[in-house]
Design brief:
It is built from nine helices and 22 strands. It is α+β, with helices and mostly antiparallel strands. It folds into two domains: 162 residues, 3-Layer(bba) Sandwich (FAD/NAD(P)-binding domain); 160 residues, Polyamine Oxidase, Chain A, domain 2, CATH 3.90.660. The N terminus is likely disordered. Bound molecules: flavin-adenine dinucleotide. The site of flavin-adenine dinucleotide has 39 residues, from helix 1, helix 4, strand 15, strand 19 and helix 9. This is FAD-dependent oxidoreductase. GO terms for molecular function: oxidoreductase activity. InterPro entries: Amino_oxidase, FAD/NAD-bd_sf. Pfam families: Amino_oxidase, NAD_binding_8.
Length: 341
């Protein structure tokens, strides 16, 4: 008989795979509903694509550059669970029209983590039980529950429900390894839509460009350039700039050595800015799964027969706020579920 709701006194054990914004949002909200939630993260710390790389003297945001907020619940959630972990980025933002001239971005408040993007997920993770350095490899049905194990086969516990917030390729791999081929097939198209991105952080002693703090370039290799040191809370000596390669260029050069990629993107930056001096340091990062484009955007996926849900940016617009929206949508659906006695 199904006559209780999910937020009844029944306490569910929920495993969340991934501690990016989607995973932490889902975990915090489910915990708030009284459930017993464990977040598993394959990396050393939380954050996912809200990422910062350590560089001499500080850090540079090599993943998401900023986020906007259209959902009225988003900023209050971040304030409640993250405090002052973020703030507005008072920059000048522009894009280059096909003729090369610069146009301003639309007026909108753009937010960043302070003093780095990962400050947001670090703060949120204090409100969740996160087990780091644990890559989930398999789910095995055990009565009504799921036995969850890592890629070494180590058992990690039994859970009533599993929420997967990994990017589509990693989510599909986990589902297929668990024999859940029908569920994995839902990800065939999304996997194709996730684009890679080469990222470079370069340090300059003198400002290489003074017209914008963030800009989208009209260049075959270079998509985005930002003065990371202009973001709030960064106290760099000199300036760290971040370059993101275009998805097409990254796909063509995905296996190229990192130092060659850094030189190519620096050359592209010189083409765009005409600034020839420096840099004196560069670090590089390759994102195999960076941004998703197009496709169906159902918000989240819930498979009631299996008690498995999927959330993440790729289901809701491919952006930071989309990750939050997706997790909220999935939790709302779970909360409305009838529960078997
Ligand atoms: C280069 C780049 C630039 C971007 N710029 C912007 C921007 O300016 N503005 C914007 O709004 N968005 C931007 N984005 C997108 C933004 O970063 C994402 O939309 C958002 O961070 C996604 O959050 P998520 O929680 O859905 O996924 P993720 O952050 O990817 O989190 C998924 C987590 O799952 C973990 N994981 C995967 N598989 C497993 C497993 N088997 N077991 C355990 N853990 C696992 C991963 O390690 C990761 O931590 C950018 C992304 C990149 C890469």
């Amino acid at each position: 008989m199904f006559n209780q709701t999910f937020d009844s006194p029944v306490i569910r054990r929920v495993a969340v795979v991934g501690s990016g914004l989607a995973g932490l949002t889902a975990a915090i909200q489910l915990k708030g509903l009284g459930h017993d939630v464990t977040v598993f993260e394959k990396s050393r710390g939380p954050g996912g694509r809200l990422a910062a790389k350590r560089v001499p003297g500080g850090s540079a945001d090599i993943g998401a550059q900023y986020f906007t907020s259209r959902n009225p619940d988003f900023l209050p959630f971040l304030h409640k669970f993250g405090g002052d972990c973020f703030g507005p980025w008072q920059g000048r933002f522009g894009f280059q029209a096909p003729g090369g001239e610069w146009e301003p971005f639309p007026e909108e408040t753009r937010y960043v983590g302070t003093p780095r993007m990962t400050a947001i997920t670090r703060a949120l993770s204090a409100h969740a039980h996160v087990v780091a350095e644990t890559r989930i490899g398999k789910l095995v049905r055990k009565d009504q529950a799921w036995s969850v194990s890592d890629t070494e086969g180590n058992p990690l516990g039994d859970f009533d429900q599993v929420i997967i917030t990994a990017p589509p390729a990693q989510a599909r791999e986990l589902l297929a390894n668990s024999g859940l081929y029908d569920l994995a097939a839902h990800l065939d198209d999304p996997v194709q839509r996730v684009l890679p991105c080469w990222a470079v952080a370069a340090h300059f002693q003198v400002p290489p460009w003074t017209h914008h703090e963030g800009m989208r370039c009209q260049h075959p290799a270079l998509f985005w350039v930002a003065n990371n040191s202009s973001k709030p809370g960064r106290n760099d000596s000199g300036q760290w700039w971040v370059f993101h390669a275009s998805p097409t260029w990254t796909e063509q050069h995905v296996d190229r050595p990192a130092d060659e990629v850094a030189e190519c993107l620096l050359e592209a930056f010189r083409d765009v800015t005409d600034f020839q001096t420096g840099p004196d340091d560069m670090v590089t990062h390759r994102w195999l799964y960076a941004r998703s484009e197009g496709g169906e955007q159902p918000g989240h996926l819930w498979f009631p027969d299996q008690n498995i849900g999927l959330a993440g940016d790729w289901l809701s617009g491919g952006r930071v706020e989309g990750a939050f929206d997706s997790a909220c949508g999935l939790v709302a659906e779970l909360n409305a579920l009838p529960v078997a006695q």
